[in-house]
Amino acid sequence: xxxxxxxxxxxxxxxxxxxxxxxxxxxxxxxxxxxxxxxxxxxxxxxxxxxxxxxxxxxxxxxxxxxxxxxxxxxxxxxxxxxxxxxxxxxxxxxxxxxxxxxxxxxxxxxxxxxxxxxxxxxxxxxxxxxxxxxxxxxxxxxxxxxxxxxxxxxxxxxxxxxxxxxxxx
Length: 170
Description:
It contains eight helices and no strands. By secondary structure, it is an all-alpha fold. It has one domain. Helix 4 runs antiparallel to helix 5. It is globular. It comes from Cognaticolwellia beringensis. InterPro entries: Uncharacterised_HI1736/YgjV. This is YgjV family protein. Keywords: Membrane, Transmembrane, Transmembrane helix.
């Protein structure tokens, strides 16, 4: 099977997981689902000769699991430093920079105690990964980020904008 086709199959698994992830209310469930999706997404990027994105996503899988248990800001800083080290050591141009910028936003959100802030950072980081995948030419990757950002916006709307009738009466 050609690497490109295999990469698109792997990122399809990411798509399925991320369709549901941002609809969870529990922040830990969101982070656990994203951890699993990062494994598939990381291998997708490695098959497309994008080591920065690949290794950032593989590391992000671990980072999401860590952020479920510990929200210490120093862990966030260490995670960002490791992501910067990955970016510098695998640098291959504009896509490396875009991926690192997206990682800054998503890491900052994942170590936040505030669910609303987490969702806003996920939306912002997802938009950058969308641009990354568009430039890379990964069609399923573009769909993943479109679904992820769309799902994140829907989740944000459901939990922070839409008012339930019972809440409006109070």
